User: What shape does this take?
Amino acid sequence: MITIDSLDSNEELEVFNLAKEAGKNVGQMAADIIREYLEDRHDTMLADKALEEIQSGESRAISWRELKAELYDDVDN
Assistant: This one.
C-alpha cells in the first residue's frame, strides 16, 4: 500500500476532481497517474538512448519517405 502525504491541498483537490470526472475513486486515479508517469519516463529513457545512438553514429535517423521506400522494397521482394 502507498500513502501519499506530500501533496498540497490544491494537488489533492485536483486528483479528487480528476477521479470524480473519471468515475473512479482517488486510489484508482492515483494508480493511473503513477502508471502514466512510469510509462512516460520509460518512453523518455528510450528516446534519450536513441538520440545518444544517433549522436554517436551508432545509429542513424531516416526520413519517413526513406522508411516507406524500404518497406515497399521489402514487400516487392
